[in-house]
Amino acid sequence: MDGPVLMLAGAGTGKTKALTTRIVHLLNTGRAQPNEILAVTFTNKAAREMKLRVGRLMGGPAEGMPWLGTFHSVCVKLLRRHAELVGLKSNFTILDTDDQLRLLKQLVQAEQIDDKRWPARMLAGVIDSWKNRAWLPENLPAGEGSAYNGRGPDLYAQYQRRLIELNAVDFGDLLLHVVSIFQKHDDILQQYQRWFKYVLVDEYQDTNVAQYLWLRLLAGGHKNICCVGDDDQSIYGWRGAEVGNILRFEKDFPGAKVVRLEQNYRSTPHILAAASGVIAGNENRLGKELWTEAEEGEKVRLIGHWDGEEEARWVGEEIEALQRGTRGREPLGLDSMAILVRASHQMRAFEDRFLTIGMPYRVIGGPRFYERLEIRDAMAYFRLVVSPEDDLAFERVVNTPKRGLGDKARQKMQLSAREHFLPLAEGSRLMLEAKGLGGKGAVELTRFLDNLERWRGLNARPDANHVELAEMILDESGYTEMWQNDKTPEAPGRLENLKELVKALEQFENLQGFLEHVSLIMDNESDEAEEKVSIMTLHAAKGLEFPAVFLPGWEEGLFPSQRSMDESGLKGLEEERRLAYVGITRAEEVCTISFAGNRLVYGQWQSQMPSRFIDELPEAHVDVLTPPGLYGGNFGAAQPNVRSNLETAVSEANVYNSPGWRRMQANAGKRGTNQQQKNQVIDAVAVSAYSVDDRVFHSKFGYGNILAVEGDKLEIAFEKAGTKKVVARFVVNAADAGDIPF
DNA sequence: ACTGTTCCTCTTTTT
DNA sequence: GAGGAACAGT
């Protein structure tokens, strides 16, 4: 209970249980009151889950754990209390990525920088990485000076000043400001050090430097800190997470007790072995061996497909089979199944397919509710009513709906505001009075400004009804009408969302209260009753588990992601591998990995190679499925004696006859191979059935001649599509191609 | 000032 | 293939 503890907890070993039980024990033994425990997580979902479970263990609703939340939400609370110490007012607004980008863009353009070559996005990334490392403009290391064409540090400083002027913060600032307050005001720090008697941290491997400093400061007094993490599940390096924080823990907290949790209560031995086999490819690990007492179960299944569409179709059919109950298994509900993809654009193929077959699905972690256009517009109106000086909100909605205020009118407003050192709303009022604008624009702008005043007046009244006011704002501004007149197919959905927004307001005291919370808490997780298959990214899946998991798109370049490897080399590859580990370990009973030979990327067909991670799967724990026929996509129909002549010709030409598949199937029958031979499920060394100068046909690229043969990979000069590398099983001898109705 | 067109880049993952 | 920016036309 007392002193520093580091829990190294593998996937499915009961991390959350350990944390919640610890909290409950602290409370039950009277060591701390609920409000004296600081427990931080990364996601709202994790925080909610912990609250729920603590409540359940305590045998009542989890009232009064005010300091159990995400790093960000805890920091908002702290920062609202002490905002003035960093030059903010306590009602500061939290900018989302979109606001942030628009602001940066303004700054970049004001500096006459070509934002084509140096996009604001890039600057945002640079600044973010600095904030993750807790570097303020004034103490940037000299080496960073060249960032963003040498203008980075200057623009960073400008950006920070502008944020203070706007009484706003971005996500990174939430931590950064709190850390600076603690560093500069020892009295305040000590007050919190005493107040938080125990500190608990979930997913410790995801902490960045700023969060680490924050924790070290807060736990610096009594050192009652308990961190739970798993270095093998560190998948947020790209946003500044430092696995090094785990390694540093024992140094910073001497005498720390290190506990390893290695018994897995989630998955079958085959699944665990497959996951272990993959993660073993990483050099930099603390090293944990998961074990389980669960029954053997099914092997991990592996299957290749012709293209992404067929992959989606096959997965759909498998889901239906699991629903009915297959291979001697009890029927599974759709809630028990999930499709985990590397990149969100992969979701599309599944959504398309599921829509056509009427399979209910839910996308988790898609565009969040509050990130939607209409919600952000509506909130900008609310913000403007609550804080008249919110220039970003003003700019967003002055001309939404269209009020005849274009670039020219905007410039005039800006000019006037800057001249008088006033917010845009007041500045534009002055400009109007000075007759600086005429015509329709002037009339509409006057009406807009008058409306704002009136709404503010209503909002300030003690008997104000904020829900009615919100509806009034949306109606009188013409915003609702704008969508009602909109003929695009999205319009009804947007109106629906606006209604939902107004409904969400009911749970708050007033508009202010709503705005303070909304940017951090609005997940779009409506609890639907209907059973649905979940589709999400691997990142979003961390911490979840499903009886049946599909892992599609295991192809070089996609997974592991080319970009990750280009940008971060071996480190990037290892993070991708951890992602694979996270994916496999989400599965309790059935884990199905798949890849496709062709995929639509940027609207163009590309031939894909199976992922290197597939080679790393220990074959003793993998069941390589016979590929479905190329047309039927139907597993059963692929039996040799059932296939039609046409299918036989096609399949043998480009699938069953390919050395890779032959090896796969041969290997699939083998048992108990040694460690050395564990991989090569898909084989790159076998001799190809083709040789240089052979003329071949590929369904997407057409005819071409083979330039080089490299294992089962062919380099082919296509007549129309240029030179490409293709896996042998996806081409046919040109002579056979005439029979194929591509 | 607004609308429609073409061309361009681009996609990893998120609090 | 989609969304944004630049351009042209109304």
Residue-averaged pLDDT: 81
Name the overall outline.
globular
Low-confidence stretches: 628-688, 738-742
Portion of residues within helices: 40-55%
Query: Whole-Å distance between the termini?
Result: 68 Å
**CA radius of gyration:** 29 Å
Folded structure, characterized:
Strands 9, 10, 11, 12, 13, 14, 15 and 16 form an 8-stranded mixed sheet that branches. Strands 3-2-6-7-1-8 form a 6-stranded parallel sheet, sandwiched between helices. With 742 residues, it is an alpha/beta fold. It has 27 helices and 21 strands. The chain binds a DNA duplex (15 and 10 nucleotides) through α3, α7, α16, α23 and α24.
Write the topology of this structure.
Blueprint lengths: L4 E5 L5 H14 L8 E5 L2 H15 L9 E3 H12 L10 E2 L2 H14 L9 H13 L19 H14 L2 E2 L1 H14 L1 H10 L2 E4 L7 H10 L6 E5 L14 H9 L4 E5 L7 H11 L20 E8 H17 L12 E5 L5 H11 L3 E3 L9 H14 L4 H7 L9 H13 L4 H10 L5 H22 L5 H11 L2 H6 L6 H15 L5 H11 L11 E5 H4 L4 E6 L10 H24 L1 E15 L2 E4 L4 H4 L6 E3 L20 H10 L4 H11 L25 E4 L3 E9 L2 E6 L3 E6 L4 E2 L9
Parallel strand pairs: 1-7, 1-8, 2-3, 2-6, 4-5, 6-7, 9-14, 9-16, 10-12, 10-13, 11-12, 13-14
Antiparallel strand pairs: 14-15, 17-18, 17-21, 18-19, 19-20
This protein binds a DNA duplex (15 and 10 nucleotides) through α3, α7, α16, α23 and α24.
